[in-house]
Amino acid sequence: MRRTRSSRVIAAAAGILTASLLIAGIVRTAGPADAFAATSKATVINYLRSITGSSIVSGQHNKEPASSPAQYTQQVRNVTGQFPGLWGGDMMFRADDQANRQRVVDEAKAQWAAGSLVALTWHACSPTVGATCEFDGGVKTQISNAQFQEVVTAGTALNNTWRSRMAAVVPYLKQLKDAGIPVLWRPFHEMNETWNWWGGRPGANGGAKIYQQMRDYFDSQGLDNLIWVWNVQDNPTANWAQYYPGANYADVVSLDVWWKSHPSAADYSQIQSVAAGKPIAIAEMGKVPNASLLSSQPRWAYFMIWSEQLLGSNSTAEIQAAYNLPRVLNRGEINIGAGPVTPTTGSTTAPAARTGKIRAVAADKCVDVAGANAANGTQVQIYTCDVGGSAQQWTVGTDGTIRALGKCLDVAAAGTADGARIQIYDCNGGNAQRFTYNAATRDLVNAGSGKCLEVRAEATANSTPLQLWTCNGKANQDFTLPA
């Protein structure tokens, strides 16, 4: 993370640019941004997966003061004539900023209603200092290994203090849950760094543990709207995976880019290796992306420019160019649940209606209704492709349904756990029966869970059932749809 207090010398000049840019025709104008409806975290995760490989959401962080929680987002508007597709805020650390947490939550609601995704970071004060603190000595501080172990050990004084700090944030996050707003929640960021009190602690009892404990606690508080974003920095330390809390704890895997202007090819490769098919993002960067970066590294789902770095590290021409790149999705170009408004090659939307065979690529077999039995609950499996049989004739609908024998492809009991059974069932319009397809990655993703269809255990034998599983990029999750 880059914490600077530089004056915004460009800001005043930038404020007069928007009208002239629009008149000059430099700005790509988006269509009107419809308010996002209340939705689930799975819908947003599915959206991020759907644009992977073809598009990237623009984002802007807004640091303190919390009394002005959209000041840097407005700078983007002043320079480009557009709003970012993602708004970033913070739960803060100073007393005056924590006193304005409600302003941050209200801004998050307004940004979502306007058509921007919502991301929140938390620069938490160390439990060894007061509940409010200055950045230096409070967030940017070191604690001993013994103190850290006390923080993550139930019943200790530091653990009790830390749990009270987490509890103080819960009511604000619950407001967003009650409003139906999924939040890209990024705690304990830059876990491989040592500037912060939680960082630089690899292994099961280090940063991964405190991350897991927060998720377990917030889950127990019913905060199922949080999209858990795990994060490291692009510093020279190797093996980012040693800080990873595990696939069951992270929904998005992200990188902060401060050692370099843009992620290196090695960074891009390593973050994908850790993600194992989950969406990846650039959660902080100072330099805006360019066409070369997005062409060579197309799988980033969103980027977020750090507050004052927008104008401090970029010329107005660079910012305008970034926001006008064909791959970049700004507010008004994001359609939650159905892919981007104007999808490019390889993007995912509800598939166009057509009928034919769905093939499991690795097994070289077809998706099949067992025994051609049209009864509710009949297993869906793979089987040698036949000629003209009704059990392998699937109609892929524009509404996201996939139908055979008059029934819909269905996740049994609307399950969301890895291993959930796939069957056919009476069509009912639920998300357990809606799927999106990414032609670039060949994934079929369930709308209700954000997880992928796969052939169980990577098997290739006839009658091997399909199941739901966390998307991981393996070949048993590759399918082709009817032409």
UniProtKB/TrEMBL annotation:
Name of this protein: Ricin-type beta-trefoil lectin domain protein
Keyword Hydrolase annotated: yes
Family: Belongs to the glycosyl hydrolase 26 family.
Gene Ontology MF term list: mannan endo-1,4-beta-mannosidase activity
Ranges for domain GH26: 39-332
Catalytic residues in the record: E190, E284
GO biological process: substituted mannan metabolic process
This protein's UniProt keywords: Glycosidase, Hydrolase
Lineage of producing organism: Bacteria, Bacillati, Actinomycetota, Actinomycetes, Micromonosporales
Cross-referenced InterPro entries: GH, GH26_dom, Glyco_hydro_26, Ricin_B-like_lectins, Ricin_B_lectin
Entries under PANTHER family matching the protein: GH26 DOMAIN-CONTAINING PROTEIN-RELATED (PTHR40079:SF4), MANNAN ENDO-1,4-BETA-MANNOSIDASE E-RELATED (PTHR40079)
